[in-house]
Amino acid sequence: MSAYEQLHSSAGKVDMGLFRKVLLGISCRDYEAAVEAVPGAIGLSKSTVSREFKKATTAKLRAFQERDLSGLDVVALLLDGKTFAEDEIVVALGVTLTGEKRFLGFLQTATENERALTGFLRSLIDRGLDLSAGALVVIDGAKGLRAAIKRVCGGQALIQRCQWHKRENVVAHLPRTEQKRWRRKLQNAYQRPTYREAARDLKAIRRELVAVNESAVASLDEGFEETLTLHRLGLFPLIGRSLKTTNLIESVNAQAEQRCGRVDHWKNSVHKQRWLAAALLNIEPRLRKLSGHRHLPALRTAIQKELGLTAPESAVGSTAA
């Protein structure tokens, strides 16, 4: 039996072994040196490995793009851009009411512009994503992304602006020697447990900044209330650690970078998308439930109250079950 036939003769075990090893760092050129680590693969050429990996990742990309999202009760949606060669790829990560993390899709775009992002969000809805019961959308503050969310999600979602990005945007306007002190002030203010306390301290910082740097003041003012959404909902002490920033999805992007970083030349768009889809699907089963997931039903209730929503009967039934 030929080595190629052996690749397909064991219910896909060798094929998936190759897939994982190439994805996790054994490049096709290095394959012959590491071939003994793959049971049953002795004798396969690097061209065969490359061809089989391309076939496997093509299937992964198709499965990722065609995922049915209708069975997911998403209560939080995190969106963040990742630089991929000369492109920006925006990844969407959903958190279900029970705390599971699921990748919903990604968009390859030159910039985070409203038109492209609007189309992307609508494509998720077309694939079954239903936010009608209310959701929190966590973003870094990109204007195009915010505008797209408002256009597509309308009155079904609240935006939580990343407090880390806001803090860094503010201090970037200040002298380097002063940044540490102001960063600590802003961090302490955002860590206050209640909306009243956090808003009070941030407004005190604003008054101090007026005499220091008007650009820093303008940066703090922009999106001020959206950085305090979880505070306003009364849930910051319970799930603020998980959802006050985009750290959750940025961590995932870093893991994807570890898997894709060995590629030093991207041939085309499909090449990039095949690798990213494969990386995300490889990462997803390893993701733990959201820290503080027991409080997600309370988040849903608070969002519905804020937006004046009534939970659909189907959503209520699935939650009770």
Shape, principal axes of CA atoms: globular
- Percent helix: 40-55%
Compute the number of strand runs. Answer: 5
Helix and strand element order: HHHHEEEHEHEHHHHHHHHHH
End-to-end separation = 52 Å
Class computed from helices, strands and strand pairing: alpha/beta
Q: Biggest sheet, strands in spatial order?
A: 3-2-1-4-5
| Rg on CA atoms, Å | 23 Å
**Rounded average pLDDT:** 84
Roughly what fraction of the amino acids lie in strands? 5-15%
Instruction: Outline the low-pLDDT stretches.
Output: 1-14, 31-36, 313-321
> If helices are DSSP runs of H or I spanning 4 or more residues, what is the number of helices?
16
Instruction: Give a quick account of the main beta sheet: strands, pairing sense, barrel closure.
Output: 5 strands, mixed
